[in-house]
């Protein structure tokens, strides 16, 4: 188990995916985000960081202990 996996990330959608690229819309869907101001908590893993990196202009990320 990774040391990073002990932490959690709260990911909040702050902008719309309308007009975005298909992979960006699918990344939001994979993160469980459908509406603006909706939040989800995910373990801090490389896979989740990769999804967040794809949509970094549409979301805010904060670490939750």
UniProtKB/TrEMBL annotation:
GO biological process assignments: translation
Membrane-spanning segments: none
Record gene name: rpmD
Record protein name field: Large ribosomal subunit protein uL30
Any one Gene Ontology cellular component term annotated for this protein: cytosolic large ribosomal subunit
Keywords: Ribonucleoprotein, Ribosomal protein
Domain Large ribosomal subunit protein uL30-like ferredoxin-like fold: 9-59
Keyword field contains Metal-binding: no
């Amino acid at each position: 188990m990774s040391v990073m996996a002990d932490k959690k990330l709260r990911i909040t959608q702050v902008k719309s995916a309308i007009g975005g690229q298909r992979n960006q819309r699918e990344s939001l869907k994979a993160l469980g985000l459908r509406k603006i101001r909706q939040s989800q908590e995910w373990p801090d893993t490389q896979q989740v960081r990769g999804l967040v990196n794809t949509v970094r202009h549409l979301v805010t990320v904060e670490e939750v202990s």
